[in-house]
Design brief:
Lyase 2-enoyl-coa Hydratase, Chain  A, domain 2, 2-enoyl-CoA Hydratase, Chain A, domain 1, 11 helices, single chain, alpha/beta
Amino acid sequence: MSEENALLKDSRNGVLTLTINRPNALNCFNMSLLKTFRSTIEEVSFDRAIKVLIITGSTEGKNAFSTGADLKERAGMTPDEVRFYIQTIRDLFTSVEELPKPVIAAVNGYAFGGGLELALACDIRLASKNAIVGLTETSLAVIPGAGGTQRLPRVVGLARAKEMIFRARRISAQEGLEYGLFLEITEPENLLGKALEIAEEIAKNGPVALAQAKYAINKGSEVSLPVGLSIESNAYSVTIPTKDRTEGLTAFREKRKPVYTGE
């Protein structure tokens, strides 16, 4: 498989679907893919035509969302190269988390290590019923290094996150649903359709409002309520002078669908 095709793109109705496409390596991340992924996220950030991002894995061969780092490549790295790799993948996933657009992870199979860490950086996580996920790094004598120790506890709670990481335990999609890791699970053949359904519904809304809502939720969840309310107030104020806000009110008055431009 050519590394040039390691990240596939499909855009429709304001929704961009990125498919990690290294099926022979269970869609794991090598440095080449990380660089391509990073540049793509940077492009998406400034592309007004893209309202929502979906991230999934190739379904060729064994179904895998991503099994994390390319350990074959990692085995040949020096300690300094490993540190650079970890910094690169951590920064990439943070850029996904901070993307000013909603991001949906469609977890279609195995998601271990960095694969699950990528899903954790997304806003909404859906999974196929055959998905198996886990932060398994301690079994390799390292720890999650791309945000897993920080994001997993915030999603499933401190005790559950510690148990999963300490035991390097792999869990089923059903367990993930019960833990609050996944919003919904579907039959494998319905996963991407469900993700697109949600994404297209989101994409109808005001882009500036979506960006500010995401910012307020993400930043406000880490602070006290009074500080969070201040963050919300500031985020709201950004939407007030926009053309989209005027368009939304006008469309409501005229009983038609609004046409938002992100301005």
